[in-house]
DNA sequence: AAAGAAATCAACCGCATCTTC
DNA sequence: CGAAGATGCGGTTGATTTCTT
């Protein structure tokens, strides 16, 4: 994959980040002894010192390296260097095809859990895997190819169906840790045997190769419905590939569907008001406005941390999120990660529904945007593919009370689809009332756990999907009051 | 051949968690 | 039990190489 080598004497000495605050030596880099810690690329001499230290003292206690060896490196740097380059059990060189397919498999199950993935790939480091993945998705994105092979989607779908068959959702199930959850979708190693990673070669037709009618037909096949496709980006303007990737997942697992613009860019036509719904439409169009950056972060079930501290305006002291904006509400912390409920189909698409309804109510007077009747999200997707307006099922539900008797807050926490991960900094969760603020806010929603989206029971037999849409309606009613009721 | 873009990779940073005292 | 230190993790950055025009 790369002609560059890592570690050892073949390493490019001049490479690496420079530090203005700490000592950066040149040449031999024999920076040993007391004093400021060195940063930047490691030299062979430093490597030798570190190796010698590990031979003597073993791994660990990295902060003692400087003390015992005189190496002017911080413990973290020593650990990283050892783990990523000096460990004797490291594999060098490019990933093999088997490793690549394994990474894809693991990522489909774990998301960006690089360290855990590295544990499954002997001799490989989390950094390697991370770099590989980032490179890969960028490449796939550019090629307009799906990030995962069909097999992955199929396995997840199958596993999901199996889990649904096993039994009903229990609270215990929802409290499983992430590993047990991901096990629900465990993809047998052997099932990947047919998958060959072919850089630059799609495993299937690109969305750009297919007419919309084909998409429609494909959508009728549950095994392909969620074949997430990357947008083809205009080469001159690209957002981070991960943003696009996960926005794509977002869109494709919601009622929104990727539709190409005349430039072959990827948009979600459900939200024809792109400016207001950019966050949800997987807006990777280079021809359209690119709103504030959307950071990639995994909103996985694995990440309870996404529930804390990053949700900005919503505070636990408030029984309900602010009524000022549904946008705020959308960013409220989840009571539990969505994938803690791996078989909960009713979770699907509610976020999009909320956002959609919110935006419809708050700003849009364009009736053409109102959806037509759709019996299932499945059909919604089909309709969207055909660029037809549709109406979500909950729009028709008239039940005054949630069947679960939940408050709006609980509804919106329990039913928010896919944990929406934290955003960067407090500014990211600011919610403004003007349209631009709303737009930016939406853009800050992050979806980085494709399997989470894939596992929401969106695979055809999602019969429960519409049954609890009244819950959403209740929640919106509670939050928006008459405005919402008036728009019914 | 030159320039710019893209790819690659090592390393840093901040934060979370674990461990020790 | 809390503080401090150690460790681990994931995201990001920036230098260099490679590719493309």
UniProtKB/TrEMBL annotation:
Domain Myb-like per the UniProt entry, residue ranges: 34-86, 87-137
Sequence ranges of Polar residues compositional bias: 419-435
GO biological process: anther development; pollen sperm cell differentiation; regulation of pollen tube growth
GO (cellular component) term, any one: pollen tube
SMART domains xrefs: SANT
Annotated region (Disordered), positions in chain: 1-40, 419-443
Any Pfam family the entry gives: Myb_DNA-binding
Any one Gene Ontology molecular-function term assigned to this protein's record: DNA-binding transcription factor activity
Protein name: Transcription factor GAMYB
């Amino acid at each position: 994959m790369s002609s560059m080598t890592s570690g050892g004497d073949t390493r490019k000495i001049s490479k690496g980040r420079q530090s203005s605050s700490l000592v950066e030596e040149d040449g031999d880099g024999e920076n040993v002894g007391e004093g400021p810690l060195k940063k930047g690329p490691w030299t062979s001499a430093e490597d030798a010192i570190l190796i010698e230290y590990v031979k003597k003292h073993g791994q660990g206690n990295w902060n003692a390296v400087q003390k015992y060896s005189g190496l002017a490196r911080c413990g973290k740097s020593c650990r990283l260097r050892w783990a990523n380059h000096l460990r004797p059990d490291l594999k060098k060189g490019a990933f093999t095809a088997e490793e690549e397919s394994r990474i894809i498999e693991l990522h489909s199950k774990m998301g960006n859990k690089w360290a855990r993935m590295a544990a499954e790939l002997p001799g490989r480091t989390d950094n390697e895997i991370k770099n590989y993945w980032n490179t890969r998705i960028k490449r796939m994105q550019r090629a307009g190819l799906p990030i995962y092979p069909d097999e992955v989607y199929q396995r997840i779908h199958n596993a999901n169906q199996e889990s649904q068959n096993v039994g009903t959702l229990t609270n215990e199930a929802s409290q499983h840790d992430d590993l047990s959850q991901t096990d629900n979708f465990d993809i047998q190693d052997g099932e990947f045997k047919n998958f060959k990673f072919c850089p630059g070669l799609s495993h299937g037709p690109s969305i750009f190769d297919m007419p919309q009618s084909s998409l429609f037909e494909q959508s009728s096949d549950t095994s392909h419905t969620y074949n997430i496709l990357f947008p083809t980006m205009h080469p001159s303007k690209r957002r981070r590939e991960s943003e696009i990737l996960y926005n794509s997942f977002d869109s494709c697992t919601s009622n929104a569907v990727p539709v190409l613009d005349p430039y072959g860019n990827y948009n979600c036509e459900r939200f024809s008001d792109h400016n207001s719904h950019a966050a949800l439409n997987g807006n990777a169009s280079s021809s359209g406005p690119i709103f504030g950056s959307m950071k990639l972060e995994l909103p996985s079930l694995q990440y309870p941390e996404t529930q804390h501290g990053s949700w900005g305006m919503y505070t636990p002291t408030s029984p309900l999120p602010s009524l000022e904006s549904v946008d705020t509400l959308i960013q409220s912390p989840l009571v539990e990660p969505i994938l803690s409920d791996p078989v909960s189909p009713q979770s699907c698409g509610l976020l999009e529904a909320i956002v959609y309804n919110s935006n419809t109510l708050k700003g849009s007077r364009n009736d053409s945007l109102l959806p037509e009747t759709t019996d299932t999200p499945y059909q919604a997707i089909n309709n969207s593919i055909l660029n037809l307006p549709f109406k979500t099922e909950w729009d028709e539900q008239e039940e005054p009370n949630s069947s679960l008797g939940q408050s709006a807050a609980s509804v919106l926490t329990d039913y928010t689809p896919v944990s929406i991960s934290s955003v960067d900094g407090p500014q990211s969760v600011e919610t403004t009332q003007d349209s631009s603020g709303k737009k930016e806010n939406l853009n800050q929603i992050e979806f980085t756990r494709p399997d989470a989206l894939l596992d929401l029971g969106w695979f055809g037999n999602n019969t429960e999907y519409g049954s609890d849409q009244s819950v959403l309606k209740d929640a919106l009613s509670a939050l928006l009051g008459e405005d919402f009721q008036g728009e019914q």
